[in-house]
């Protein structure tokens, strides 16, 4: 089975600092692999391991050398970086470029992260599925593959839902899936010898018109936070204790 | 000079950082407070390949260079010193010494399983009555047929209770002092070999530090590393590697102090502003930055020499002295910046201070390094070629082979 995984390099959520004067992130903010995407890669690798054969190809739109290297070191077989001056654009541009690449690759299954930690639209997976006209299963927290059918566990608002789908399909991963493996040193060494391509939208036959964004960014700002307290008055002491404990637990202070 | 890390070096750094953050950081305060030792962490390090990082692939290692080794040590000690200590003894003092001095048969027998992380190894030179004065060790090795019989005690041995393999130094002739030493590989389970723990340590409380006792331990002659009388040279070249990992780890400890202090400087208010605004606090932050950057440059210079297989005793000693002193100062200042909170284990800086102190003593005391540097400068000390020079890193070996 050929499995494609869509990944993105994002500003490291643990190292983000905002520059008010620039109205943007501090230049040189460290980059990281989008967390959900790592769960998607892990799921793809496990499926390949279960089948004992196949290929895992990772692709990214926009600069993502470190992220693609990491995926190769985790065990992916091949990496493709799709780069161009107009990339990354909005989510539809990204999805259009990815769909063009996926039409060429014709994978049996596509994994993606549910959303990215930078833009956070959660659009790309569904848009790609729509453009390719294949089934989409989002919010995936568990999977099982048997006899050509995937049984998927989805997280929904008030519980979990199970769906079955026969590939090809696009699956969006959440972090309740198996924890992504760390690359081993052997994996890092082997990744150097694996194929890694860099292509442009033009190579995929994507026209300039298709690369024109429909969404424009006005800027980045940080919402002012004001501290709010909770005052418990005229409450039974036992209840007050329970409420205080709940308050602290909610904020992960205890 | 190229100050850019390669993509592989970045990947090694990031992987080791994630491992330490994921597996150890959430627990270390508790482990340290209880003095708990968790050897299962080493199994995971072995699975990831960290325990064989600079060993060539043909001996089961990762084949990475010494800059990568330094980055790994930095990331490990940024979380806790006990993690870096494992690299110092297993990789630096033992495995790299086998790589340099061992016969092909000895490498296949001990180095390969060590590099794969299947066996843990340590180094036993220090004794209750001999630390810096290594030529004066009292452990005796007496030839008896096709084996040697070892008797003696070793002290302050990291991984004493965990290691499977021990690189032990003993004297064949005490009257010969350092010229009478020999090195032997001992294995756990040999009759007469016992180990125990040392408790009540100031720092590295999550680590295994102990003693080794040898009572009539019969060691086959083929377990001798190098030749009779070569033990001191082997020990010193081992220490060149161990010191390097200690220096690189110290950079991680300084960085941890700096990061904790910067965070606290932004959080803590005094006299109506964050304490980072006060110049005397800034002075301490600036000293940490200076210590981190200068130490790192010295470590990377030593790494480059090691990569090329060039003798680096002087440069490694300088890196170790500067980095460990800077780490101790950084930890001391980090406690000061944290004020009374720095005095409790609510914050990690008191652990950093306790952990930083040992490295000013082990792997050459601060005083030994000052003497070394002065003697080099004065021309009293010259490094002569070794029978078995330190081999270059795998990538540089390959480069040389191509040239």
UniProtKB/TrEMBL annotation, chain A:
The keyword Electron transport applies. The keyword Transport applies. It comes from the Bacteria. Residues 22-208 form the Electron transfer flavoprotein alpha/beta-subunit N-terminal domain. Pfam families: ETF. GO terms for molecular function: electron transfer activity. InterPro entries: ETF_a/b_N, ETF_b, ETF_beta_N, Rossmann-like_a/b/a_fold. Keywords: Electron transport, Transport. PANTHER family: ELECTRON TRANSFER FLAVOPROTEIN BETA-SUBUNIT, PROTEIN FIXA. This is Electron transfer flavoprotein subunit beta/FixA family protein. The lineage of its organism: Bacteria, Pseudomonadati, Thermomicrobiota, Thermomicrobia, Thermomicrobiales.
Automatic annotation (TrEMBL), chain B:
The keyword Disulfide bond does not apply. Residues 6-118 form the Acyl-CoA dehydrogenase/oxidase N-terminal domain. Belongs to the acyl-CoA dehydrogenase family. Its cofactor is FAD. Keywords: FAD, Flavoprotein, Oxidoreductase. This is Acyl-CoA dehydrogenase family protein. It holds the Pfam family Acyl-CoA_dh_M. Residues 229-370 form the Acyl-CoA dehydrogenase/oxidase C-terminal domain. GO terms for molecular function: acyl-CoA dehydrogenase activity; flavin adenine dinucleotide binding. Residues 122-217 form the Acyl-CoA oxidase/dehydrogenase middle domain. Gene3D superfamilies: Acyl-CoA dehydrogenase/oxidase, N-terminal domain (1.10.540.10), Butyryl-CoA Dehydrogenase, subunit A, domain 2 (2.40.110.10), Butyryl-CoA Dehydrogenase, subunit A, domain 3 (1.20.140.10). It comes from the Bacteria.
């Amino acid at each position: 089975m050929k499995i494609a995984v869509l990944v993105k390099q994002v500003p490291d959520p643990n190292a983000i600092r905002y520059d008010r004067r620039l109205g943007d992130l501090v230049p040189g903010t460290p980059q990281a692999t989008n967390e959900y995407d790592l769960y998607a890669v892990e799921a793809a690798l496990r499926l390949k391991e279960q089948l004992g054969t196949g290929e895992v190809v990772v692709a990214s739109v926009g600069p993502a050398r470190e992220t693609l290297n990491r995926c190769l070191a985790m065990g992916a077989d091949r990496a493709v970086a799709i780069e161009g001056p107009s990339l990354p654009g909005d989510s539809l541009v990204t999805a259009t470029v990815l769909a063009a690449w996926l039409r060429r690759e014709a994978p049996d299954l596509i994994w993606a992260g549910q959303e990215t930690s930078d833009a956070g639209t959660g659009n790309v997976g569904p848009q790609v599925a729509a453009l390719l006209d294949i089934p989409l299963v989002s919010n995936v927290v568990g999977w099982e593959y048997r006899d050509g059918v995937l049984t998927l566990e989805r997280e929904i608002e008030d519980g979990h839902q199970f769906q079955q789908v026969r590939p090809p399909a696009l699956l969006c991963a959440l972090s309740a899936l198996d924890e992504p493996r760390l690359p081993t040193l052997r994996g890092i060494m082997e990744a150097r010898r694996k194929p890694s391509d860099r292509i442009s939208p033009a190579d995929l036959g994507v026209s300039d018109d298709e690369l024109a964004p429909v969404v424009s960014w006005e800027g980045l700002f940080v919402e002012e936070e004001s501290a709010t307290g909770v005052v418990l008055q005229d409450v039974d002491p036992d209840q007050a204790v329970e409420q205080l404990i709940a308050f602290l637990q909610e904020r992960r202070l205890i | 000079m190229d100050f850019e890390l390669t993509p592989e070096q970045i990947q090694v750094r990031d992987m080791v950082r994630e491992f330490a953050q994921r597996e150890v950081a959430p627990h270390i305060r508790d482990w340290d407070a209880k003095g708990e030792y968790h050897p299962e962490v080493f199994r995971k390090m072995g699975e990831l390949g960290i325990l064989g990082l600079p060993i060539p692939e043909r001996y089961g290692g990762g084949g990475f260079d010494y800059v990568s080794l330094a980055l790994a040590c930095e990331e490990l000690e940024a979380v806790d010193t006990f993690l870096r200590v494992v690299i110092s003894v297993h990789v630096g003092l033992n495995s790299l010494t086998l790589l340099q001095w061992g016969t092909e048969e000895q490498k296949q027998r001990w180095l390969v399983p060590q590099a794969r992380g299947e066996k843990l190894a340590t180094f036993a030179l220090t004794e209750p009555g001999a630390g810096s004065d290594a030529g004066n060790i009292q452990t005796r090795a007496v030839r008896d047929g096709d084996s040697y019989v070892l008797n003696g005690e070793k002290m302050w041995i990291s991984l004493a209770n965990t290691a499977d393999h021990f690189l032990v130094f003993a004297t064949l002739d005490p009257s010969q002092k350092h010229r009478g030493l020999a090195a032997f590989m001992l294995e756990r389970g040999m009759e007469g070999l016992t180990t125990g723990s040392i408790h009540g340590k100031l720092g590295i409380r999550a680590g295994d530090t102990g003693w080794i006792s040898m009572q009539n331990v019969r060691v086959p002659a083929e377990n001798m590393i190098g030749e009779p009388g070569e033990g001191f040279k082997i020990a010193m070249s081992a220490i060149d590697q161990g010191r390097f990992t200690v220096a690189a780890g110290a950079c991680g400890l300084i960085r941890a102090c700096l990061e904790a202090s910067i965070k606290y400087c932004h959080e803590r208010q005094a006299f109506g502003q964050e304490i980072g605004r006060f110049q005397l606090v800034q002075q301490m932050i600036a000293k940490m930055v200076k210590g981190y950057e200068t130490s790192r440059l010295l470590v990377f210079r030593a790494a480059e020499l090691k990569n090329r297989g060039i003798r680096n005793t002087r440069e490694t000693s300088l890196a170790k002295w500067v980095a460990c002193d800077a780490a101790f100062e950084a930890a001391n200042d980090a406690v000061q910046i944290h004020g009374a909170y720095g005095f409790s284990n609510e914050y990690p800086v008191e652990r950093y201070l306790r952990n930083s102190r040992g490295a000013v003593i082990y792997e050459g005391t601060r005083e030994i390094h000052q003497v070394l540097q002065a003697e080099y400068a004065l021309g009293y000390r010259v490094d002569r070629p070794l029978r078995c020079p330190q081999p270059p890193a795998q990538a540089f070996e390959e480069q040389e082979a191509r040239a």
